[in-house]
Amino acid sequence: MKKAIDYKKIPSMCLATLIAGSVLLSACNAAPDESTTTTTEETTTTTTIKTTELTWVTQANPKDTTTYEKIKLDGNPDHYFTVYDYSYIESDKYILLLEKDVRLPGDFVITLDAIVDEIEKEMGVSANPSKYTGSAVPEDMNWHYGDKNPWEDWIIDTKIPIFVCADYTDDDIGCVGNQDYVRICLYDLMTKEALEALPRYKNKITGKLGYVDYVEITEILARHIAFRNYEFFMPGIISEGIGNYMSYTVVDALAGQYANIKTANKKRYRYDAPIPEVVNAKNAEEVFTVDYTYDEYVVNGETYNDYAIYPSQEVYGRYLCRFLKEEYGDDFYKRLNEGLNEYGETRQFAWIVKKTFGDDVFTKFGDWCVKNKALQRKDGFYW
User: Fold this and answer.
1) Has residue 294 got a pLDDT over 60?
2) How many angstroms separate the first and last alpha carbons of the chain?
3) Are 145 and 110 contacting, i.e. CB atoms less than 8 angstroms apart?
4) What is the tens place of the pLDDT at every residue in 53-75?
């Protein structure tokens, strides 16, 4: 029987047998890895960490409870905390679900707290809506854990589940913010041993930035929070657009207060993805309605398929959000969210936007795009 826990609830677990043999796994506690200088180089550890294969904890004995350590970072950006076994960090609005080979800077939680607070302020919605009361850690990430669920029976209530993962194959790298959870998997949050086991590192193709990409983390957190506050299907131009827009407004707002966010903001690439057609007063609503959902389109002789859709949704949605804020005020997303929740079941999203902001909203947006030279180039470009 599942029970509610205050994060002290221990999943029904026992020590697992290694897949490759019959040697029992001994649980290792995470320990802080401190650096006394401001260098960004990996600190040396004497602990040997196996990174070429994963070892899982199973549910074989429901009476055997294996404690996951509750971690507290020290707040020092020059200190790093290396995770050697499943553990977690609890904040007011989210819980970080950690696994082996994750390496966090000491100010990671402080920075995430600031980002979530600023997203709530900018979007006018809560990161922890009451509809999530009594919710468990979602099982959608079980594929990453070898179809096991190391967090089974964990009731996290309204807090955001954030899986912080290591990648062992080059297949899982990246960040995700969907309807159910947030996943953070970045080379700069992995141990040196884990990185050196990756194929791309063996081939000397590095994806490590040298800093934590809080721009990407902000985008996926904003997208997830948008989904959390909505009951129905959300079109990509809105979900991708609000996430991308928040990655600019939130990061710009915090860059002056947090050096690590300032670094990510300074080094981010600013890019407008290719779009099927330029936007004006005549076609702005049609482009929104189509939502780039067709299978493929051609730009400058190049054919783009479904995989190119999301960047196009991002750039249209970002400019739409920017326009709505300029034209209708700081509470534009709160108003839009209320309209979506009231009428979203109809799936008539252009009609909902017009009902919220006026029948001429798309005409005004198209004129705004022409005036501000937004969405006026089909080819992708950096700026």
Assistant:
1) no
2) 55
3) no
4) 222 233 333 333 347 899 999 99
Complete DSSP assignment for 169-196: SSSS-EEEE-SS-EEEE-GGGB-HHHHH
Q: What is the pLDDT of residues 226-262, one digit of tens each?
A: 999 998 888 889 999 999 999 999 999 999 999 999 9
Q: Which residues contact 357 (CB under 8 A, 6 or more apart)?
A: 324, 327, 328, 332, 335, 336
Dist CA 180 CA 160 (whole Å): 9
Measured between alpha carbons, how far is 295 from 314 in angstroms, rounded to an integer? Answer: 17
Q: CA-CA distances (angstroms) from residue 281 to 95, 266, 288, 296?
A: 44, 34, 12, 24
Interatomic CA distance for residues 313 and 320, integer angstroms: 10
| Residue 173: closest CA among 138, 137, 205, 136 | 205
321: nearest Cα among 336, 305, 311: 336
Amino acid identity at 218: T
Length of the chain: 383
* Mean pLDDT of the 274-281 span: 92
Cα 252 to Cα 35, 56, 261, 343, distances in angstroms: 29, 41, 9, 33
pLDDT given at position 129:
96
CA 29 to chain centre: 26
What letter would DSSP give residue 41?
S
User: Nearest Cα to 116, choosing from 18, 231, 261, 19?
Assistant: 261
3-state SS of 79-144 is CEEECCCCEEEECCCEEEEECCCEEEECCHHHHHHHHHHHHHHHHCCCCCCHHHCCCECCCCCHHH
Q: Which residues pair with 69 in a beta bridge?
A: 87
Instruction: Say which DSSP state 295 is in.
Output: S
Whole-number Å distance between alpha carbons of 381 and 379: 6
361-372 helix and 349-357 helix, angle to the nearest 10 degrees: 90
Retrieve residue 292's tokens: 């780039």
Mean pLDDT across 172-197:
90
Q: How many CA atoms lie within 13 A of 147 on its CB side?
A: 0
pLDDT tens per residue across span 323-346: 999 999 999 999 999 999 999 888
